[in-house]
Amino acid sequence: MQKIYILFFLFTISLKAQDKLFFKNGTVKKGVVISIAKDVVFYKTSDTSARTQQIPKTELLLLENYKGEIFIFSEAKKEVETAKTELTLYKRNAIGIQPLGVFMGRITFAYERFTKDNKIGFVFPLSITFDPSGKLYNSRIDTSKNAVKRLSGVNFIGGIDVNFYVGRKKNSQFFVGPRIRYGTDMFAKGTEAYTVQTQFGWRIGKPEKAVVQHLAFGFGVVRILSSPAGAVISPKQSYASFSVNYRIGVKW
After folding, report:
1. Where are the beta strands (DSSP E) in 68-171?
2. Measured in whole angstroms, how far is the alpha carbon of residue 194 from the centre of its chain?
3. What's the rounded Cα separation, in Å, for the pair 184 and 223?
4. DSSP state of 38
5. Which helix (H) or strand (E) holds 244?
6. Best CA proximity match to 245, nearest among 188, 145, 177, 184
7. To the nearest whole number, what is the mean pLDDT of the chain?
8. Tens digits of per-residue pLDDT, 173-218?
9. Which long-range contacts (CB under 8 A, 24 or more apart) does 66-72 make?
10. What is the model's pTM?
11. CATH number for region 93-251
12. CATH 2.30.30.100: which residues of the chain?
């Protein structure tokens, strides 16, 4: 009879000595943990069971062994594929010429500095002006005493543009902004004036390429400061102005 009590006591201890597995879905399983691997837990439902089960750690919250020790399983790190953002290193400097201006008595060079995102450009143009009459093309010259003589020598016109580039097209990007000029135009008979315009146009060229082109149109006013042409061009007057500009250059 005493042996029966001892066997019953040992059986009771063996029932209490089971490990507990707590799952994320709220269920609890009792059994015997064989080992804990990197990604799975090996366990049997009982000591006498011949079948060993594998439970992924991702399904478990924690494990409590028969000694009362608790093992908490953190959620496995998910490999998240982060979308790679293409980092474009824009060329921020450009220098160019306006070849069509030669026919209007201007040799123009322009330097443009872009912001890091290439959304704004600050343009600093410098024009050497001359009177092309009789040199680049023949013109009818009035030989009377009242005729305005062809001017010799050169003069200068400078200014600044601020181009705001908008839109998502990279190869042909629209821009708009103010355009300011001041200087003496030899083609306009040595007229000194300043102009204020609103300019819009397109920058043409791939961002990664060195060659860049600009085609722009400007509308605004011109203020005459002085003019040796006398009655032909009245000084101290303002007039509507219009401009067409084409620039080709290189970036770096």
Report:
1. 70-72, 93-97, 106-114, 120-130, 154-166
2. 34
3. 12
4. S
5. strand 238-251
6. 177
7. 83
8. 999 999 999 999 998 888 999 999 999 999 999 878 899 999 999 9
9. 66/16, 66/17, 66/18, 66/19, 71/36
10. 0.61
11. 2.40.160
12. 2-72
Beta-sheet strands, E only, within 57-105:
60-64, 70-72, 93-97
Which pLDDT score is estimated for 9?
42
- Is 2-72 CATH 2.30.30.100? yes
Residues making up the chain, counted from first to last:
252
Q: What is the pLDDT of residues 105-147, one digit of tens each?
A: 999 999 999 998 889 999 999 999 999 876 666 655 555 555 5
Q: Which position has the token pair 């019953």? A: 8
State whether the Cα torsion 240-177-157-95 is positive or negative. negative
Could you tell me where in the chain the CATH 2.40.160 domains are found?
93-251
Tokens for 233? 């061009």
Reading the block at residue 126, the tokens are 């410098």
Residue 7 confidence (pLDDT) above 80: no
